[in-house]
Structure prediction request, 244 residues.
Amino acid sequence: AVVSTQSGHYGRDLKAREAADGDGKRKGRSRKWKSLMKFSEAAEVQIFKKEFPELNYDEVVSKSPIGRLLFTDYCNETEELRCCNKFLNDVDNYEKLAPEEQRLNLAQKIYQQCLCDEAESRLPDHLIDHEKVKEVEDKLLGESPRYIYSQIASTVRDYLSGDPFAKYVESKYFTRQLQWKQLEKKPIGKHTFRHYRVLGKGGFGEVCATQSRASGKMYAEKKLNKKRIKKEKSTDCDSALIPL
Prediction:
């Protein structure tokens, strides 16, 4: 029996999901695996649009690891959208993942790459509020609080969630996202998850890190020894998938 609990995690590159596992063995290259992960035709997956609570930027992109990767691919086709999406991703990593001791350096790097006049990936002029940029410059001279870019990021997110997102929904990238969504809806079996290292062991089994092959989301999976559970007359041997 398996009890899986989802943990917060943003998706990594799709190719990385098919790379070597922790034990050094290559996964995801067999014919059997490819048949399990075969995509349906584009016309067949349009019905899976209704699987999103709402067809908006937050549900389709922000909350979906694969959605974020595919939206990034879509944005990379246009320089303006590439710069906007890069800024949001950098700010998101800065706010959620940056260690305290590295925060100031990362904040300065975002400013140099996306906001200053000579920036390689400078945001388009119509999204730059010079008063807010001046506030950022002043804060960079201090301790650089975690949400130093929140106001600018909100403006950029509103822009991307408008016409760029509407065009993304009509693109081949969103069709591919729906194909992944269709795979997510397949019944759960032993091939649904890729298993990584053991996180802990208990009296009736062990907990290991796993990743959904279809969505890229990470889970903590609890494996239970049914024979031992029945021997101890325990009733806690049913399977369940418990999202956080």
